[in-house]
Amino acid sequence: MKLNKHVETILGCDKKYDEADIVVFGAPFDSTTSFRPGARFAPGKMRTESPYAMESYSPYLDLDLEDDASVFDGGDLKVSFGDTQKTLGIIKDYTKNILDDGKVPLMLGGEHLVTLGAVQAMAEKYPDLNIVHFDAHADLRNEFFGTKYSHATVLRRCHDLVGDGRIFQFGIRSGDKEEMNWARDHVTMYKFDFDALEETLIGLEGKPIYFTVDLDVLDPSIFPGTGTPEAGGVDFNDLRLAMQVVSYLNVVGADMVELSPSCDLGGISTSVALKLLREFLLSLSRARRERC
Amino acid sequence: MKLNKHVETILGCDKKYDEADIVVFGAPFDSTTSFRPGARFAPGKMRTESPYAMESYSPYLDLDLEDDASVFDGGDLKVSFGDTQKTLGIIKDYTKNILDDGKVPLMLGGEHLVTLGAVQAMAEKYPDLNIVHFDAHADLRNEFFGTKYSHATVLRRCHDLVGDGRIFQFGIRSGDKEEMNWARDHVTMYKFDFDALEETLIGLEGKPIYFTVDLDVLDPSIFPGTGTPEAGGVDFNDLRLAMQVVSYLNVVGADMVELSPSCDLGGISTSVALKLLREFLLSLSRARRERC
Amino acid sequence: MKLNKHVETILGCDKKYDEADIVVFGAPFDSTTSFRPGARFAPGKMRTESPYAMESYSPYLDLDLEDDASVFDGGDLKVSFGDTQKTLGIIKDYTKNILDDGKVPLMLGGEHLVTLGAVQAMAEKYPDLNIVHFDAHADLRNEFFGTKYSHATVLRRCHDLVGDGRIFQFGIRSGDKEEMNWARDHVTMYKFDFDALEETLIGLEGKPIYFTVDLDVLDPSIFPGTGTPEAGGVDFNDLRLAMQVVSYLNVVGADMVELSPSCDLGGISTSVALKLLREFLLSLSRARRERC
Amino acid sequence: MKLNKHVETILGCDKKYDEADIVVFGAPFDSTTSFRPGARFAPGKMRTESPYAMESYSPYLDLDLEDDASVFDGGDLKVSFGDTQKTLGIIKDYTKNILDDGKVPLMLGGEHLVTLGAVQAMAEKYPDLNIVHFDAHADLRNEFFGTKYSHATVLRRCHDLVGDGRIFQFGIRSGDKEEMNWARDHVTMYKFDFDALEETLIGLEGKPIYFTVDLDVLDPSIFPGTGTPEAGGVDFNDLRLAMQVVSYLNVVGADMVELSPSCDLGGISTSVALKLLREFLLSLSRARRERC
Amino acid sequence: MKLNKHVETILGCDKKYDEADIVVFGAPFDSTTSFRPGARFAPGKMRTESPYAMESYSPYLDLDLEDDASVFDGGDLKVSFGDTQKTLGIIKDYTKNILDDGKVPLMLGGEHLVTLGAVQAMAEKYPDLNIVHFDAHADLRNEFFGTKYSHATVLRRCHDLVGDGRIFQFGIRSGDKEEMNWARDHVTMYKFDFDALEETLIGLEGKPIYFTVDLDVLDPSIFPGTGTPEAGGVDFNDLRLAMQVVSYLNVVGADMVELSPSCDLGGISTSVALKLLREFLLSLSRARRERC
Amino acid sequence: MKLNKHVETILGCDKKYDEADIVVFGAPFDSTTSFRPGARFAPGKMRTESPYAMESYSPYLDLDLEDDASVFDGGDLKVSFGDTQKTLGIIKDYTKNILDDGKVPLMLGGEHLVTLGAVQAMAEKYPDLNIVHFDAHADLRNEFFGTKYSHATVLRRCHDLVGDGRIFQFGIRSGDKEEMNWARDHVTMYKFDFDALEETLIGLEGKPIYFTVDLDVLDPSIFPGTGTPEAGGVDFNDLRLAMQVVSYLNVVGADMVELSPSCDLGGISTSVALKLLREFLLSLSRARRERC
Fold first, then answer.
1. Interface test with A, best of D5, D72, D79, D94 (most A CBs within 10 A)
2. Do F47 and C6 touch (CB under 8 A)?
C-alpha cells in the first residue's frame, strides 16, 4: 500500500486551486519590525495549530468552511529576509497571479509591510481601489528608523499608490504627532473603535476594496501575541462583527497581519487569529454568494 | 519538641473529614486531551498556590472559608495515565464514598472526561439527576480521535446515563455541525452567555443537580491557562455570579475542570480558578445553611 | 569625533533637572513580596522598553511629552535588598531632595512598600497630606509574615503617619476580614471600581495629595505582570480616566507600583504601565499649567 | 498559473515512497506520560523546524541527505489520545505496511510506549528480533500507575514478545530496585554510558535489530526538552557516535522517542534530535549500501 | 470510610520524626537576592516534583531511600520576607531543636543567607565547627548593597562565628578583588574544581562539619535554575562524587541552597537538585551506619 | 542638590572616550536572520545585566576591568531595520571613526552580518587585514534566501574584500556541501574545535587581525540563547582560552555576535557572553600593554 506525503493546509482551506474562490497564503516576513520580531512565524503556526485550535463550523454564522466556502491554501511564500524590495516583489507577483485567475487573495502576515506588496498588485488591477484599514497604529509615517519601507510607513506607501481620500482607518490609538496631523488632510481616520464603521462604509458600496487587518487593533488582553501591543483596544466580538460588516463590501483582496507567535507564549492569540479568519472567510463567501 | 509533617490543603479547606459538608479532591488526569495537555497539574498547583494567591475571606459575599464553610480537602487521586476506564473507576469509587457519607463532592480536574466518573456515581445514587454544564465546547460528540471516551464526548456519555432533557448547557461557542444538530433534540443548550440562566434554573428547583464547570467558558483573556482556549467567552464576574445562581439549587455534586497550569505561564488562571472555587464554596455553604 | 556615553531615560522624560517640574525615579525593591517577586525589575524595564513600547504623543489628550510636559528621569535608586529600613531611608531622602527643589516626585516601584519611604518625606513637608490609593488589595494589615513593614501593611503604616480620615481607597477587592473591619473606622474604602471617585474627590480640592497606584487594580487580563493578580479588576480605560481625574487635584507626589516584569512574560504589562505613566504625566502637567 | 499546496516533510526526507529505502513517520502519542506531557508535539515540530534548524549536509560524514540517502516522510499517524490499545494497533499496522514493502521504518515519538506498536509488527516478521535500547530509564516495570502499558513498562512488554537475552540496554541511570533486579536475569543492561557498546554488538552481527533511542539518554544540559530529564547523561557526540556504531548492524527498524517540545522552551532539543536523525539516516544508508 | 488529608514530603523522606536520623526542612527565603529572585520556591517545588522527577533508588550506590536511610521532612519554615534578622532567628531555633534531638539538619534554601541561621545554631553546639563550602561565589564580602547580611556576605558572617582557618571553599570562580584578597588570610579557598578536595578533607576527619552546597557551583548548562549563574562550573558527576567524599566526614549539619525554580523554566535544575539530595542522603546514611 | 541622569554602560567599560584604548558598541541589527530573530536585543541586554551578572574582577587572570583595562562603551547604533545597506554604512562609519582615533573597536551584535560593516572600515585602513573567525557555521554562501547580504554569506562578503588565504575559521560544524567545497580553495577552515589554533596563529603574528566570534561556536548546552543552535560545540573554557590565545595577536578590531536574548529564556547565555567579553577585554589589554 503506497503511503502519502503530508499536505498541510489551514483547516477547511483544502479545496483544489481551480475550484477555489479565495486563496489564502502566508507572507512570513518581519525584517522591518522595530521592536519584537516573530510575525514571520504566524502563517506556519496558524496552519499547524488549526486542526486543534478551531472547528471548521461557526456557531455564530451556522456555516461550515467545509461546505460553505471554497478556499485554497497556497502555503508560505519564500521571502528574502533583510531584502525588503525583493520580498515585496515576490508578494506582488503571487498576488497578481491570484487576481489574474479571478480569485480573492487573503494574505497572512508577517508584519504589516507585506500589505504593500499586495496593494501594488491590487492597485494595478483596480485603479479605483479603496483601502479599509483596522489597526492600533496609524502607520502613516514617511520614514521610520531611516527607511521609507517599514511596518510604520506602510499605509503612507499605500497612499502613494491610491492617493487622497481612499484610505479609511479604524481603531487607531497610537502614532506620532506629525503623522496624526498629516492624516487629517489625506485619509479618513476614526480613532479607538468601530462606531463610525457602518456609516462610513455606505459610501464604499460597489467599489473595489482592499481590507487590511492589523490584529493589534485588538486589546492586548485578548491578543497579547503581537510585536507592539497597545492597551485600550477593541475586543474579539467587536472585531469579529466589524470584519463581518466589511465582508459585505466588494472585497477584492485582504490580509491579516502582525500575529507574532514568539510573543504569544500561551498560544491564545493564534487561536484568536484562526477564528477571525474562519469567520471572515465564511461571511465573505456568503456575501459573494448572495451577490451572485 | 517533636516536629510535624507538612499537610497541604487548599487554603481554608482544612476541616476534619467527619465535620465537613463538602469534600474537595483532585482528579489529575488528562490523557485524552487532544491539543495541549497539562490539566493534570491543576489541583496540585491550586493547592500549592492557594495560601499566596487568595484570601479565605470574600469581599463579594462578606464570608470567610474559615468560619462560614466546612470543607475537607482529600488531596489528589492516584489516576492511571493512559488507562481511561481504570481512572474513571477510581473517580467513581471515591465519589461514591463521599456520597455515602452524606457529603457533597467537589472534584477539581484534570480534563473534562473526569466528570464522567463522578456522574457515574451520582446517577446511581440520584436516578433523577440533572446536569448543569458551563463550557465553551458542547462536548457532545459520539466519538473523537477514534475513542468514545474523551474530553470532547464527555457530556454525550453523561447523556447515556441521564437521558434526554436532563442536561442544561450555557456559554457554548464551539462544536462541530453534527453535535450541534444532535443537541437540539437531546439537551438544552444556550450559546455564548448566561442570559437564560435564571429563567432556566427555576424549573430545576429541588431536583438533584450535578454542576460541571469547564473553566474555558471564560474568555481566554481572563483565563489563558487552558488547553483549548476559545475567544469570545464570559468574564470573571459573569461566571462568578452565574455559579452563585446555581449554588441556590440542590447541588449534590460539582466539578471545575480544564485549568492547565502548563498553559498558564504567568499564573493568572490558577488564581482565577481559586477565587471561583472560594466563591462557590461559600455561596454553596450559605445556600445549604439557609435551606436547613 | 568624540563619542558619547549612553544616557537612558524613559522616552520623553529627558529634560534637564533644573527645568523639570516632575521628577521620575525608580525604587527597584521587592524584598517583602510574599508571592512572586520581580517588581524590582520594573523601572529598568520601563526605561529600556519605552522607546519601542510607546509614543511620546497621546492621541487621547492630543498632547506630547516632548512639548507639553517637563519631566526629568533620575534613574534608579540603589536600594538595599533585604534591609527594609535602610531602603525606606534612601527613598525618603531622595524624595525630600526633590520636594525641597519644588518639584513633584513620581516614583516607579518596586513593590508597594516603597510608598512608605516617599510618604515619610511627604508627610513631613505636608502635615495635612491626604492619600488617594488605587489598588486591588487593602494593604491595611498591622503585620504580615511576622513583620510590620510589608507590601501588605504599607497603607496601615501610612495611616500611622497621616491618621484617620486621610486615606481614600478605590478598586479594593481583596483583604482579610480583620483589615476590612479595621478599614471601616479609619479610612474611606470603595470596593471594586471608581464609581464614587469624582464625588469623593470634590472634598479634597486644594489639599496636598499623595497619589499611589498599585497597578494590580487593573484586571489581570490587561495587566498579568504583577506578583499577586486579582481577578475582577478595572480595565485600562477605567484606570486611565480615573488617574486623569486625580490629576486635577493638588498632587504633590505620586507613585506607580507592583509592575513585575518577571510575571509579564509577553511584555504587555510593561507597555500598559508606560502608557498610563505618559497619560498621567501629561494630564498632571496640563492641570498644573492650568492652575498657574 | 496553477498554485500548489504545501507539502511538509523533514528536510531531505522528500523522496517518493516507491524509491525510498527508509520511511520516517511520526507517532504523536503521549497519553501514558506520568510527569510532563508534550512528546506528542515532537514529530510535527521536527518537520516544521527542519528547514531552519539543520542542513541536509553532514560535516561529520561528508554525506548529504539529498544525495546519499533515500528517505520518505509519511507524516504523522492519527493516534487515539487516551486509547492505548487502539493507538498501538495503528502503529503496528503502519509499521507492518512498511515492512511488507521491504523498507526500514524509522518512527519518531511520542512517548516511549509507541515502541511497542512497532515491535509488535517487527517481532511477527522477524522471530529472531533483537532490541538495542539507549535510554536513561530501564523501562522494565511490570506495571506503572496501575497499567501494564506505559512508557515505564515498554521494554518489559517488548520482552514479553522477544524473550530473554534479546534486549541490550545502554546508558541506563534510573529505575526502581525491583526492575533493576529483574533486569539481571532477563536482559543485558549497561549503566551510564556506551563503553561496552562495540564489544557487545559484535555478537549481534547479521541478526535483525530493532533500535530504540530514548533521547533522554542524553544529559539534560544538551537535551532539556524531555518529560523526565535525568542528570548524568551522555553528551551529543557520545550518542552520535554510538548511533553510528549501531547503524552497521542489520537494523530492520528504529525509533527516536521522548523529545517533548513543550519542555524545550529554547528549542535546542529539537535541533539536537534533528541532527541525530540526519546522522543516523546517513550512516544507516551508507551501511546498507556497503552491505550490498 | 474516612478519607485522609494530603501529607506532602520529599519522596522517600517520610519516616516518623522520632525514628529519623536526618531532618530535611525548607527555608524559603530570598529577600537579599540582588539579581533574579525565586529561590524561595525551591523546597516547595522539590517536594511537589519529587514523586515524578526522581526514584528513591540510586543506581550509583545501589541503595534506596525507603530502606537505607531514615529521613523526616518537616516542610517549610514560615520565614519573614523582608525581615532578615527575624528569619535568621526562625532558622536558628528550628535547627537547634533538631540538634537537641540528636539528629542531623539538612536545610533546603532559599538563598545562601539562610546558611547563617543554621550555622548560628551549629556553632553554639559545636564550638570547633568547621565549614565545607561548595560554591561559584566566594560570598566573603563584608557588606553588599549596603547591608552586612546578604547572600554575598554569608560566609564572611559565618567566619565571624567560627574564625580563621575553619572555612574550606571549593569551586569558587567569582568574587571581587577585595574579598579574594581577604580570603588568602582567613579561609582556605580552592578555585574552579574539586581537585584538592580529598587531600584537604583528610585534615578534617572526626571534626564536626557543617557542609553548605550552593548549587550554582554547577555549570549553568546542567543547572540553569539559579539566580546568578556562572559559566565554567563543575558537572553533575563531579558534584555528586565530591558530595559523597564529604559525606564520609562527621557531617553534623548541611544545606543545599540557591535553586531558583523561577529561573528553571524547563525544570531540569529541580530534578538535578533532587538527585543530589538523594545521593547525599544515602551516602551520609551509609557513612553514619558504617561509623557505628 | 542637583540630580543626575542615568548613564548606562557595560560594567567596567565606563572610561572617558579620550582615555580609552578599546571602544565597545552595539550593532542591534538582525533583519537577515532566517530562523529565530532576537539578536538585536543583545547589546542592550548585556548592558542592563552586567552589574548583576558579572564582576569586574577576573579570577582566571587576576585582573580587573576597573584597573587593568581602559574601555569606553558608546551605547547602541541606530540601525535601520529592514535596510541592510544603510545599516552596514552606519556601522562602517562608526568603526572608521574609532579607528581614526587610534582605538580598537569591539562591536557587539546583532546578527553576524554586522561584521561586514566593520570589516569594510577595517579593510580600508589595513589592506593586509586577516580575519580570525570562530563559528559553528561556515557563513560562506554566495547567496541565501535570495540575497547576497545575509548572516549566512557574511564571511563570503568579507572574502570579497580581503581575498584568498586571509580568513581562518575554527569550530565550524555546519554548512551546505557547496560552501564547504568552496572553502577548500579560498579560506583556512578547521572543523569542530580549536586544536589547530595555536599552530595556525604563529603565522599571523604582527599582522593586523580582525577577530569575529559568533557565539554559537559554543555548545547549545552552555549557550542556548542564539538563533541557530548547533549541537556538538565547544565549551566555555575552550572558548575563553582560545580567545585569550587570539588576544596575543595584533588585534585591530573585533566583534562578538549572535547572542539572542529572545532565545535565552533563563538568561544564562547573556551572562556567558558578558564573561567572555570581560576575559577578552582584560587579556587584550594586557597583551597591548606587554607589547608597548
1. D5
2. yes
> Residue A209 and residue E164: Cα distance in Å, rounded?
83
What percentage of chain D carries pLDDT values higher than 70? Answer: 100
Cell numbers linked to B46:
491550586
Which residues are bridge partners to D73 per DSSP? D24
Our CA-based measurement puts residue A52 at a distance from the nearest CA of chain B, in whole angstroms, of 6
Q: Looking at residues A1-5, what average pLDDT do you find?
A: 72
Measuring CA to CA, how many Å separate E274 from each of D152, E46, E47? Answer: 20, 7, 9
Q: Which residues contact B181 (CB under 8 A, 6 or more apart)?
A: none
Q: F128 with F98: CB under 8 angstroms?
A: no
Tell me the C-alpha distance between B283 and B247, whole Å. 6
Q: What is the mean pLDDT of residues D177-192?
A: 96
**How does pLDDT run across C104-149, given as a tens digit for each residue?**
999 999 999 999 999 999 999 999 999 999 999 999 999 998 889 9
Backbone angles phi, psi at F17, to 5 degrees: -55, -45
The per-residue pLDDT for C265 is 82
Asked if A203 and A263 touch (Cβ cutoff 8 Å), the reply is: no
In angstroms, the separation between the Cα of residue F279 and the nearest Cα of chain A is 31
Main-chain dihedrals φ then ψ at residue C134, nearest 5 degrees: -105, 130
Spatial neighbors of C252 by CB under 8 A, at least 6 apart, are: C99, C104, C122, C125, C126, C129, C208, C209, C210
Please report, as a single letter, which amino acid is at residue B214. Answer: D
Residue C189 is classified by DSSP as: E
Q: State yes or no: cis peptide before F110, omega within 30 of 0.
A: yes
Are C180 and B267 inside 8 Å of each other by CB?
A: no
Q: Comparing C-alpha atoms, which of A256, A275, A280, A286 is closest to residue A42?
A: A256
3-state DSSP: chain A helix, strand, coil percent, rounded to 5? Answer: 40, 20, 40
What the block records as the C-alpha cell of A66 is: 467545509
Contacts of F251 (CB under 8 A, 6+ apart): F104, F209, F210, F211, F284
How confident is the model at residue C173, as a pLDDT?
97
Q: How far apart are CA C138 and CA E74, in angstroms?
A: 33
Which string of b and e fits E36-50 if b means at least 16 CB within 10 Å? Answer: bbbbbbbbbbbbbbb
pTM: predicted TM-score of the whole model, two decimal places:
0.95
Strand-pairing partners, residue B174, are B137
By Cβ distance, the residue of E52, E64, E275 closest to D231 is E275
Q: Which three cell numbers stand for residue B162?
A: 441521564
Cis preceding-peptide flag for A110 (omega within 30 of 0): yes
Residue in D64, D236, D266 closest to F177 by CB: D64
Q: Would you state the cell numbers that stand for residue C238, as one nine-digit string?
A: 477605567
pLDDT per residue as tens digits for the range A79-123: 998 899 999 999 999 999 999 999 999 999 999 999 999 999 999
Searching chain A, which residue's CA lies closest to the CA of residue D45? A48
Residue D5 burial by CB count (10 A; 0-12/13-18/19+): exposed, middle or buried? middle
Q: For the residues of E20-71, what is the DSSP string, one character each? A: -SEEEEEE---TT-SS---GGGHHHHHHHHHHHH--SEETTTTEEHHHH--E
Strand segments, DSSP code E, in B121-207 are 130-134, 167-172, 188-191
Q: Which three cell numbers stand for residue D159?
A: 520482552
pLDDT at C254: 98
| Cβ neighbours of residue A50 closer than 8 Å, sequence gap 6 or more | A10, A11, A12, A274
pLDDT grade, residue E1 (50/70/90)? low
The pLDDT, as a whole number, for residue C145 is 85
More confident residue, C8 or D1: C8
**Residues of chain E positioned with their CB less than 8 A from the CB of F232:** none
Shortest Cα distance from E236 to chain D (angstroms)? 6
